[in-house]
Amino acid sequence: MDAERVGSQHGADAVAVLGALWGKSKERAGGRTNLLLSHLLDTAAVAELVFDHYLAPATRGVLEEVAGPGRGRRFFAWLCGVHDCGKATPAHQRLWPEGAEAVRAVGLTWLEAAAAAGARQKKRWRHDWAGGLLVRQALSEAGWAAEKVDWLWPLVAGHHGAFPTLGDVQEPRVAKGQLRGTGRWCAMQHAVLDVFTRELGFAALGEVEPVAVPSRAFQLQLSGLVVMADWIASDERHFPGVDDLRSIGLEAARERAMVAWQQLGMRGGWGALAAPGAGMFKERFKLPPRPSQTMVIEAARQMRSAGLLVVEAPMGEGKTEAALAAAEVLAARFGLDGVFMGMPTQATSDPMFTRTRRWVEAIDASLASQVALLHGKRAFNKEWKALLDKVGTDTDASYAGVDEYGLDDDPYGIVPACGGVAERLAPAEWFLGSKRGLLAPFVVGTVDQLLYAATRTRHVMLRMAGLAGKVVVLDEVHACDVYMSRFLLEALRWLGQARVPVVLLSATLPPGQRRDLVAAYLAGAVSREEFAVEVPEPGGYPSVIAAWLDRDAAAPSVHSWDADTWRPDLTVTVETLAEEKPARAASRQERRAVQRAADASVADLLAEQLAEGGTALVIRNTVARAQSLYEELRQRFPADEVCLLHARFTVARRAELTEEALRLLGPDGPRPEGGRLVLVATQLAEQSFDVDVDLLVTDLAPVDLLLQRIGRLHRHAGTRRPDRLRRPKVFVTGFRPREGREPDFLYASEKIYGRHLLIRTAAVLPGGGAWAVPGQVPELVRAVYGEEADLLPEPWAVAGVKACEEQQAEDRRRTEAAGEFLLTRHGEHESGTLAGLHYGGVSSGSSEEELQAAVRDGDESVEVVLVVQAASGQVYRTLSGRALTVNGDVAPELLEEVIGSTVRLPATLTKGALALSPLPGWRGHPWLRQSRALVLDASGHTRLGDHCVWYDHDLGLGTELVSG
């Protein structure tokens, strides 16, 4: 940096001051102070690389629109670099004693007593808020239009994860100017901004002014990219301290940034993707497209602007392939750089990870390794683990300089020391850190990852930045209940405003839900709080609805298409198997007796129906019911003819059981003549579970979920079946029909699904008749989710009205409860800036457990690692009996087994589980240090709060309330 030029422009003392103002302490910058200007320029240099090698073409295009033609890159670099200008205040400079002494030595002083009083009164007033205040004043003085200033300053003030209001960032009065700085501080703050701005090639601060105000969604995306650039530039391995002003400059920063970029393995996705040709589908999937798949692809081709596709098609129709093909079309047409594939569960995410990698590889073989798996159990996915075999696990200290004073929840993630590599075998480690996963070019994960982007949580901008450059595909959207739907609708608003193409997949949707999804996306696109839109009812099934807003159009475009399914309807016989319900005041013994009778009834049915062999799937609505039936069947059938699958096995055991079930019951599974197999499962088998069974027995559930379960029945043509099971048949149980009044439902089913939908579903059961599947699917869903009172038999009418009123009240309660966590409060969707987005504080913690509880309306559930200790003081052991130590230390060869013993506890155990902690030997372990250990005795039992908890290799985890 030319010290003479700085001195001539800002005075000789400015050189000394700029050579003293520190950005990172020695302890956080590799042993040498990193001057503030060095960090600002490092961040700007990283931003240039983000622009060149990471941003989607669409994002670069919007930056050009905002900054002006040919100015997008330089404006983006300036925006990212200026984020830490608030460190040129006593609020920051006073925090590190050695740095504070150097600053005082060059004549910048403050009254420590007043500064300390101000910091005590408003603890949150630190350099980020100070920076927002400084930038707001400086840009106004430079002549920027008020609306340009208003949208930009919150990005500086919010770069540590939360956006304050203008009132928030005002310096506390008790500080008397000693946090912001008075006197010479003002001139030196101006010097920092001016020198930095000129170094980037602008003649003055006024020249930086953009020509347009971006949408609020694009502001949020930009904010996330600012954070991304800051975090990369805070890696002390690649950006060690520079304490000599003469050594600081943009060219030197660019050299440092390029080395860091290459060694971190950073990259984007497709870049500019060529428009796929007519034979694209067969090239990608090795099969010609079915009529419904062609329909979806053509709908994507006809959209004149990025928008929303809602695809409804039967199970087994090939919706996933259609969606991926449509995503390629949309990405090529509208300049998107990657894809996020959101699945309903972790279990369904794993196979989709494999399918998505194959698809990406078919487009560009070099990109298959850039697909990231994003859910809480990805460490147990063998394919993912194989990709990461060279990735380290823990170097938090490398990023500790992001905010070394104050914000103790800034995540630094999993960013190991690494050397330059020619080609990465996995997404860059940087993307694997906390809150960053969506920034990877291609991501497969649970829908929760998208819902988190709709929560008022710290660093939500990182999630939105990751989504905004992609095509978003969400599968099984009907699985989102009224509570989760609030977050889905909020996310669609933001994505609509950001012009992110979204493809929603479902077997079928109630008309009201379909309308709400389209309306939310379009409301975002037009930046309106409320937006009424006419959504056409599909004329057939399968169908697709396309909705978009042309850039210059006043009204959106909404179109509907339908196509023929590739296979004829199945005539599915539907019968009921009545089940008694215990009285409310029944004792534990009486309840067990009733359950045993119900289990015996199902066992008798299976023995009869499978007399000639065949396969059956039994779906229970609770884990306890599944375990109870499994125990009964083990007494009736040989051990190798009965399987159990539910969510309360350890992750390793559940993966084994899932893999085995898919092997035995999948399209290529063994079907020996006369052989029998019964799979007892919970809702895990309800969706994205590719098994084909001859017979289905299921607890009653709302009709759309019941139809999903029926989708596992006679799924593939050509499968060998016993003569008596050649026609598909389902037995619906879990309730008791009653003469002259509504059925009697199980308490557990009512708690899960609500009485209203169960009554209406029971009313459409054909009672020994048949359903034509999938042809009747839309009609059945429309009937059950509609409002027609005459659906119910006359004797059920009063109970039906009461159940409806109770459901409406419950839906209102849950809708209101979701509002506490939503990113945007009602009435704020038309706001033009991000100021105050986090007004009142964040709504939830940032851990996976806390976020999942927020978006799924559940009490926070807790995961634990199961270990065994026969007696106090003895060594701990794994579930298989392999020894650890008396402190629980884990040898490397046992690590996978220990981590694989993780299990999620039911919410009823959360209070007791929160008191659990890691074993002493885990506290320094990068994988286990935050894992709670649940210690079982030699028999596999323990006491947790007022419950007895046990674990069995065949049954999984069980609990029982105990007295005393």
Shape: globular
Number of helices: 33
- How far apart the termini lie comes to 75 Å
Helix content: 25-40%
Cα-based radius of gyration, to the nearest Å: 30 Å
Strand segment count = 25
Show unreliable segments: 392-400, 406-425
Structural class by helix and strand composition = alpha/beta
Detailed description of the structure:
This protein is of the alpha/beta class. Helices cover 40% and strands 13% of the residues. The protein has an 8-stranded mixed sheet with strand order 5-6-4-7-8-3-9-10, sandwiched between helices. α27 (747-753) packs across α28 (755-764) and α28 packs across α30 (797-819). The termini are far apart. Mean pLDDT is 90; it is low at 392-400 and 406-425.
Question: What's the quick description here?
Answer:
The chain has 964 residues and is of the alpha/beta class. 40% of the residues lie in helices and 13% in strands.
